[in-house]
Design a protein that fits this description.
Elements: H1 12-28, H2 33-43, H3 45-64, H4 70-73, H5 84-94, H6 111-131, H7 137-151
Helix pairs in contact: 1-2, 5-6
Length: 158
Amino acid sequence: MMIGGTRVRLNVWQQAAVAMGSAIGALMDPRRADLIAALGETTGKPAFERVLERARKAIAILLERPRVISARVGHAWDMPANTFGAAYAKFMGSRNFSPDDRPPVRFMETDELAYVAMRAREVRDFWHTLFNLPTNLIGESALKVIEFEQMLLPMCKI
């Protein structure tokens, strides 16, 4: 499937030449959307591949809807000390938290949105663990910055 136009296959040297020419041309005349587009296409393949892969994973997650609940992460308490699972278990255990104690989602209009909202709650403890953030005002505030950067949640900006 093509999104408009005809695809032109370029070898590495041709791709570099188009990128350089487009960059120079776009600097000389920033109104040239065609040159900016060509520059984005010839230099952006890795970024576009990452976006595509993230989209595919997101679709898979929405289809599978895995949950972060005790039945799924209970083995974390048995992981070796130098693993993320052990760090997560220590974080949860030291605070007497259970992955099963999260409040239900009540105000989302669709099952998909409700799942995404719950998933965001569930991975917060992963982020606490990953960034070694305590559950005090400073740690929670720092986590709100991370959440805002990841999801643009308005409440995180307040």
